Amino acid sequence: MNLVSLLLTLGLTGVCLGYVYEEDLLYDSFPEGFLWGTATAAYQIEGGWNEDGKGESIWDVFTRIEGNIIDGSSGEVACDSYHKYKEDVALMKSMNMTSYRFSVSWSRIIPRGVGTVNQAGVQYYKNLISELKSAGIIPAITLYHWDLPQALQLQGGWLNSSVADWFEDYARVVFAEFGNDVKLFITLNEPKETSIQGHGTGTMAPGFKGIGDLTYIAAHNQIRAHARAYRLYQAEFAASQGGKVGITLNTNWGEPEEPNNPAHQEASDTFMQFNFGWYGHAIFKDGKYPEVMRRNIDRNSQLQGLNISRLPEFTPEESAMIAGSTDFIGLNFYTSNIVYPGEEDISTPSYFTDDGVKDYQDSTWYGAGSVWLKVTPWGIRSALNWITEEYGGTKDIYITENGFSDLQGNVDDLMRLYYYKHYLNQVLKAIKEDEVKVAGYYAWSLMDNFEWAMGYTEKFGLHSVDFTSPNRYLFTQ
Ligand code: NOJ
Description:
eight-stranded parallel barrel; TIM Barrel; single chain; alpha/beta
């Protein structure tokens, strides 16, 4: 038996890499007032895609194109929460949840993205909010969870710098209509995925392939749009409504392959800057991109014979508006990568090679139904600590998503239970032993739903859904 298989047998490879795969549990409790919730998103659960005056979104269009969704499905009906929202709230109540994170569909309330407001759409969310209120559940609204009105896409969508104006106008409607009852607003969900998958690899709506340039432009405009909505709330709503506005960023944790090697530690930091800092640095710090992104992308662009950098610059006025434009930090966290520094082939401009960091996932990590999702409980604690150190630890962190997928056909929750137990314990350790300010945790997801390009094949639900009805079930095994 060689050393690696011996270590594998003993379950110790992680120790060599600097982490313990399954740590002892900490027995303690979460702070008073900690929010416990589940999360969903409009396109993934609502259905009612053209009901009561709703306009088309980019996902209505993207799902119609053959080959875009693995099982050929769409969110036209999904969990039918447009009609079954009371059942959703009843499920949360029976779980003793204290909060619910859901998203508003922009084209349901402003069908063409700007202009006329659709009162029926507004009423749907008012009904949902009042149902939540009577169940004692605190609503948390995401303004944008990937379903841009198609009318705005036709004008360039996130690639058009006017999107910041459109988003501000939309945010004004959301704050004005719902802000008396809703005190937690998340502007954008995972802007990184809109940039990379929506405008880089083309695997998500609107399906553009521009990983070396469009990706950075979409990110730039999302940061500008976020800050505009935040400043709007401060100027027009904060005094009367007293709510909080933040943004949800997603990242994997980048674990250095050699934890004591400074070059690997630096690779880990670079990985985190390219994933989380891409948005976080400007918003939570100084209105600029992380230094390592500026340096690498400026240099690579020059080597690629370009006259200007592929990474845009904020104007001084924009930087001032963006810096500090948040009341809290939203984190979506699922998994980790092992990282190390590596020579990249930069002959083709790409976000994926601009970082100069190589990564992989250890083959011994337990897998979920989604290929990208490997179970790494220790990663969430490391990510929480990195965020706290990097941004000063003054703002509350909400874990706005965390969860585990299985595949169609599976009806037990054994792996899911393992996942939640160990991730939650690492969150508890971050709070109790590292003094990280985590204020709430939302499991993804309340129920199985439309998992974007994977259709209904991958299931993240705490409740199972039979999509032929679509009725909800709770499997307790
Ligand atoms: C993040 C996204 O916000 C959500 O929409 C998606 O379903 C989950 N991750 C799982 O992939």
